[in-house]
Design goal:
single chain; mainly alpha; Glycerol uptake facilitator protein; 9 helices
Length: 227
């Protein structure tokens, strides 16, 4: 495996370990603010830890956006997405292993930080609300990433800007969908939880990819790119 593949795999595992781990292991203690910060800090950690190797995409929607923006090849896109999915599954498996060691933990009851919408899920927002939120926020997230990492941008601050953006997105939307904006992050918990999490999963694949694709296209044609 290439250094890039390993970096993306490790980085995405870090994202899940921090973000999903905070929700599952400490959610009751730190609340939504703490969970939002955990997701944002995971991006900062990965960006400065592995960013020089792979760019720390950690997210198929980000990689799709980069591809459509003309920043990576189709072959690289496949490599990144595969690494991200594997890394997310590894991270979710570790969290599940830890959580299952707590007396009374039941994945069918307590979950694994999976995304969702509708009756019985957090704020019980509709499918339309979930789709709109995920498309728009992924668009914003990927637009910030492409802008913060373009030529001429203050590169030393990119990781912080991206991490703070993800934190802000979580502060707005945890109660709506649990916040995906990342198909790999959604896929990994869903395969362990099953049931409704798997039934809802398509939303958290289609919507983030649509948002990321739009961000990439607009960046490529110069709408969101510095001249």
């Amino acid at each position: 495996m290439s250094k890039t593949f390993i970096a993306e795999m490790i980085g995405t595992a870090i994202l899940v370990l921090f973000g999903v781990g905070a929700a599952v292991l400490m959610g009751a203690q730190i609340g939504m603010m703490g969970i939002a910060l955990a997701f944002g800090l995971s991006i900062v950690a990965a960006a400065y830890g592995i960013g020089l190797i792979s760019g720390a995409h950690l997210n198929p929607a980000v990689s799709l956006g980069a591809f459509l923006a003309g920043r990576m090849s189709g072959g690289a896109l496949v490599t990144y997405v595969l690494a991200q999915v594997i890394g997310a599954v590894i991270g979710a498996a570790i969290i599940y292993l830890i959580a299952s060691g707590q007396t009374g933990y039941d994945i069918a009851v307590n979950g694994l930080g999976q995304n969702g919408y509708g009756a019985g899920y957090l704020g019980e927002y509709s499918l339309t609300s979930a789709l709109v939120f995920e498309v728009v926020m992924t668009f914003v997230f990927v637009t910030v990433i492409l802008g913060a990492t373009q030529d001429g941008a203050p590169g030393a601050m990119a990781g912080l800007a991206i991490g703070l953006t993800l934190t802000g997105i979580h502060l707005v939307g945890i109660n709506v969908t649990g916040v995906s904006v990342n198909p790999a992050r959604s896929f990994a918990p869903a395969i362990f939880v099953g049931g409704k999490a798997m039934a809802d999963l398509w939303v958290f694949i289609v919507a983030p990819l649509a948002g990321g694709a739009l961000a990439g296209i607009l960046h490529r044609i110069g709408v969101t790119r510095a001249a």
